[in-house]
Amino acid sequence: MNRGLGYFLAFLLFVMSSGASQAQKASAPEKKTPPKQENSKAAPEGLDPQIAIQMADDYFNAAKFMTADFVQVGVDGRRAEGKLYVSKPGKLRFEYAQPATMEIIADGVSVAIRDRKLQTQQIYFIGQTPLKFLLQEHLKLKRDVKITNVSSNTNSTIITLEDTATFGGTSKIKLAFDNKNFSLKQWEVTDPQGYQTLVTLHNIDLKSVPDNGLFRIPSNEIWPSQN
After folding, report:
1. What is the pLDDT of residues 51-102, one digit of tens each?
2. What is the pTM of this model?
3. Cα-Cα end-to-end distance for the chain
4. Cα–Cα separations (whole angstroms), residue 110 to 1, 104, 156
5. What's the CATH number where 101 sits?
6. Which parts of 27-107 are beta strand (E)?
7. Which residue of 103, 157, 179, 180 is most buried, as measured by CB atoms within 10 A?
8. How many structural domains is the chain composed of?
9. Helix (H), strand (E) counts: the chain
């Protein structure tokens, strides 16, 4: 599989895999308590799977915008962190903190995987990636993906999905929701090659509107200076 697309598949809604060979070490962010989200519902232990799926649909469909900090752990145990921006439908940006040099931008039609150090850019259609259903305006998990398992315990509800339409084969995705307010707190992606990547979100903001300029894909000939 193309290395850049491998990175993207492991991030899901989101990105990175293919052995995570370009993931770079970064310090873990300071632990902060996520802001309380309004209009959220607690999920009881042993939640009925059909109710859990509906609550997940409601969560994704209620949030048109998202800004969050993320920490990513690749298959080799290395960590990377950065900022995630989402504006539905179709727009997303993963901005990795230094020393990582990757950035991933979806502008509503295409997805660009950019490496600032190598000054390379690869373009894919959103429909080739797992993002296609998480970035659409109205999500219905039972319609848009194959749900293989739903489980819950005291702290979390985990919905396991398969997407067979992604470039390169089937991707397996585990979405973990916090039962206190049924908000997405973590996801794990297994790409078609079997590599796993774990992404955890912190400081989730569903109200602020990201600057639309964040989702513009620059020309491959335009790169910031490397200082």
Report:
1. 999 999 998 888 889 999 999 888 788 888 999 999 999 999 999 998 888 8
2. 0.72
3. 32
4. 19, 11, 33
5. 2.50.20.10
6. 65-73, 79-87, 91-96, 102-107
7. 157
8. 1
9. 4, 11
